[in-house]
Amino acid sequence: MTDVLMIIGSESDKPRIEPGIELLEAKRMSYDLKVLSAHRNLPELVAFLTDRGGEYRVIIAAAGLSAALPGVVASQVDRPVIGIPLLAGPLSGMDALLSILQLPKGVPVATMGIGKQGVLNAVHLAERIIGSAG
């Protein structure tokens, strides 16, 4: 089983999550990175999560603007999901933060802070979740 699946909605998000990738590698945590948008690739995203979502211990979903990605992921899997609002757009990630925080009952997502600190904290939290699972 792979430790972490990191999902981003766009290729342009890769530089924003690079500190998290570096930390995953430094901690020797196994991971996969997928670029799948909840807006542009919804059928592909849902199919991937249905087929392979159970292969991961924790899923980190990073998104900017409306931040639908963490909620969609959490609605499709029974794994812990960590949402990272990315520093993007005219509201500098505040819209993404509020979108993730306001998910409905039954769609649990641990929500990190905006930007680099949130990316790093997501990896630290994933490590603790995996460690507590044995």
Describe the structure.
The two termini are 13 Å apart. Helices cover 44% and strands 20% of the residues. It has a single domain, classed as Rossmann fold (3-Layer(aba) Sandwich), CATH 3.40.50. It is α/β, with parallel strands linked by helices.
Strand content: 15-25%
Helix and strand pattern:
EHEHEHEHEH
Compute the CA-based radius of gyration.
13 Å
> For the residues shown, what is the average pLDDT?
95
Span between N and C termini?
Answer: 13 Å
Low-confidence regions: none
CATH class: Alpha Beta
User: What coarse outline follows from CA principal-axis ratios?
Assistant: globular
Category from helices, strands and their pairing: alpha/beta
**Strand order, biggest sheet?**
2-1-3-4-5
| Strands, count | 5
CATH structural architecture = 3-Layer(aba) Sandwich
The number of helical runs is 5
Helix content: 40-55%
- The fold-level CATH name is Rossmann fold
Main sheet characteristics:
5 strands, parallel
Number of domains: 1
Brief digest:
The protein has 134 residues and is an alpha/beta fold. It is 44% helix and 20% strand. The chain is globular.
Name its key features.
single chain, 134 residues, alpha/beta, Rossmann fold, five-stranded parallel β-sheet, 5 helices
